[in-house]
Design brief:
- The structure is a homodimer.
- Chain A is of the alpha+beta class.
- Chain A is built from five helices and five strands.
- Chain A binds a DNA duplex (25 and 25 nucleotides) through helix 2 and helix 4.
DNA sequence: GTGAGTGCAAACGATTTGCACGGTG
DNA sequence: CACCGTGCAAATCGTTTGCACTCAC
C-alpha cells in the first residue's frame, strides 16, 4: 500500500500532518508516533516520559502544544476521565472507554456502529458530531483479584 | 409523604445524609440545597459563589470536601467535560449531557431507558455500574444565532 | 528569508492538603 | 467528650503562556 520501506509507517505522519495544514516537525512526529506505538491512552506527561526514555526528549510545554494542535486537526482524540486526567490517543477507530473505579485502567470498548457516533438522543438539542461514552465500574482483573 | 412543613424539602437531606453514614452539618446541607435549587450543573466555584450570595458562605476548600463526600456517597454525580471543568448535580434521575462546542452550554439529555445505565458494551470488560455519555456539537441556540 | 514551532521557565487556575478550632452524635 | 467536619491558607498538579531562538517551507 505504502511505497517505501518504513517499518513504522512513520512517513504517514508527514502526509497526515501536511494534509491538515500543519508543518512537519520533529516533536510532532515524535508525539504522534509515541501515541501510535503505545496503542492505548496516554496522558501528556506519559508522552513526555516515553519520549524522554526513548532518547528523544520533548519539552512538556511543547507536548501540550503539539497535542492541542493535532487534536484540533482531528488526528488525535482527547478524553477527559476526571479532573487533570486528560488522555490522548490516535483518532483512527471510534470507540468508547471503560474506566475501572478501582485500578483506574482504561479499556477500549468498540462502538457498535462503526466510525460514526453510534448514539443519538431522542430530543432535539443541536447538531451532534460526537458521542463520548465512559463506562465506569470494576474491571474483570480487579474482580478476579478478590473483593478488595 | 414527609411529616413536617419544610417547603424546600430540606429535611430530606438530613435523612439522606444519615442514610449514607454522613453527619448532618450546615455546609453539607447548604451545598446539597444549592445544587438542588439550581437544578442544573454547577462547578465547585459556582456553588461557593451561590452560597456566598445567599448570605450563607462556605469556604472553597470545604465545598470541595463536601462535594467529594457526597459524590462518594452517591448523592451527587460529577461529570467532567474537560480539564478543570468538573460539574456537579444531584443524582436523582439518570441522564446524559450535550455540550455545545461553541458556547459551552450543557443540556441534559434524558436516558432512554430510565434510571439505569441504558447502554451496554458488547464485550466483557467488567462490571459496569455507570454509563456516562457526553454528546458534543453545536446547540440549537448557537445555530440559530448564525454560522458564527 | 519569514513565520510557524520549539524550548525554557514562569504564570495560572482548579483542586488538595495540613493543622487548629468547633460542632455533631 | 471524642471525633468528624470546618475554616483558613499554603501546597500541589495539570495545563497554559510569554519570549527569544530555530527550523520548515
Amino acid at each position: 500500500m505504502v511505497t517505501g520501506h518504513a517499518d513504522t509507517e512513520q512517513q504517514t505522519w508527514e502526509d497526515r500532518l501536511r494534509a491538515v495544514g500543519l508543518r512537519v516537525t520533529r516533536p510532532r512526529v515524535l508525539v504522534l508516533d509515541a501515541l501510535r506505538r503505545h496503542g492505548g491512552h496516554r496522558s501528556a506527561d506519559e508522552v513526555v516520559e516515553a519520549l524522554r526514555r526513548r532518547g528523544t526528549p520533548v519539552t512538556r510545554g511543547t507536548v501540550y502544544k503539539v497535542l492541542a494542535d493535532v487534536v484540533a486537526a482531528g488526528l488525535v482524540m482527547v478524553a477527559d476521565h476526571g479532573p487533570g486526567r486528560a488522555v490522548y490517543e490516535i483518532a483512527d477507530l471510534w470507540h468508547h472507554h471503560f474506566v475501572c473505579r478501582r485500578c483506574g485502567t482504561i479499556i477500549d470498548v468498540p462502538c457498535m456502529e462503526g466510525d460514526k457516533p453510534c448514539l443519538r438522543p431522542d430530543v432535539a438539542v443541536g447538531e451532534i458530531d460526537e458521542a463520548q461514552v465512559i463506562f465506569r465500574g470494576i474491571c474483570d482483573a480487579c474482580r478476579a483479584g478478590g473483593p478488595r
